[in-house]
Amino acid sequence: MKDPTSGNLDRIQIIKGWTQNGQSFEKIFDVAWAGDRKPAKWTGWVPAIKSTVDLEKATYTNDEGSPELKMAWTDPEFNPSLHAFYYARVLEIPTPRWTLIQAVKAGVPPPDMVPLTGQERAWSSQIWYTPTVEARKNAPAGMTVADVKSKGASQLGDAQLKALIVGKAFWVRNNVTDDTFSVSYTADGDSILWHIGKYTILPSYVGNPMLNGYQGATTPYKIEGGN
Amino acid sequence: MTKVAQDPYSMTIYKLGDTYYGARSNEFGYANYEMIPSPQFVLNPIKAMLNQFSLELGLTQDRGSRSSPSSSRRCRNSRP
Questions:
Q1: Partners of residue B45 in chain A, C-beta under 8 Å
Q2: DSSP, res A109
Q3: Of A15, A65, A77, A87, which has the highest C-beta tally within 10 A?
Q4: Taking CB atoms and an 8 Å limit, are A143 and B42 in contact across chains?
């Protein structure tokens, strides 16, 4: 239910995080929303709500959104063998940001390097799902370093690594997600990932490889100590 | 060794038979990455498209290539 002194509600989201084989992931589910917007077919994402903000007056109306939203939700991708957390987030409709409000009050042009509107939000405490010992037995096994070593694998040294990757582009699969991508390492010490889809579920802590690949932004690398 | 947001991490590569596995230093001892051959859509985009077309229609690759004269023509033309 909305704050009586603030904007209507745009949507309720559930943010899910989970871990699998040493990688952590997050995903946002739109679960309840105002109006008759239809989620996108492939992503399930609900389109942005119409803004009522008057940029000249720094005002908004509650003609869009809903004073109340509610929904019972079940995780369609629940895996009982994996650790997970969930929390709810509620977004208001767009309202004037303080940068716009103060510019209008001062009678000066609003700054053009920051947003002029924003969507206020509230969020719940998280809940944690811990699988039972029995359920953990059904978790995807994955491949560990110990596994590959026990099968007779050898670690590549610096010279072998240079011969394998420097000046090359090759394809790699993340065996946790089954997503594939290409990576290249230049002789000048730059690396870049390519072919990562906009909707790919990426592990946490990989930066923004989609944008970097699209823009051709490289990341420096060096080979030393067999890494 | 490289960085994400100024924090370094490294990748160690292991060779097992003809397969290379990669283990990131921040993934708790898992070797989650595997070097793979270039996918078909890189080697031959048109053939990959035809295969997808056949899959969506529930056809075999052979029947799929015959089901669309224009597509088959494009496929033949793609070969030097």
A1: none
A2: P
A3: A65
A4: no
The pTM of the full predicted model, rounded to 2 decimals, is: 0.80
Residue B77, chain A, CB below 8 Å: the answer is: no
Q: Determine the Cα–Cα distance for residues A86 and A74; give it in Å rounded to an integer.
A: 11
Q: Which of B4, B16, B29 sits opposite A22 (nearest CB)?
A: B29
Q: What is the pLDDT of residues A48-105, one digit of tens each?
A: 999 999 999 999 999 999 999 999 999 999 999 999 999 999 999 999 999 999 999 9
* Closest CA–CA distance from residue B65 to any residue of chain A (Å): 26
Q: For A147-178, write each residue's pLDDT tens digit.
A: 999 999 999 999 999 999 999 999 999 999 99
Query: Residue ranges of chain B with pLDDT lower than 70?
Result: 1-7, 55-56, 58-80
B6-19 as b/e: b if 16+ CB within 10 A: eeeebbbbbbbeee
Of A164, A175, A221, the CB nearest to B1: A221
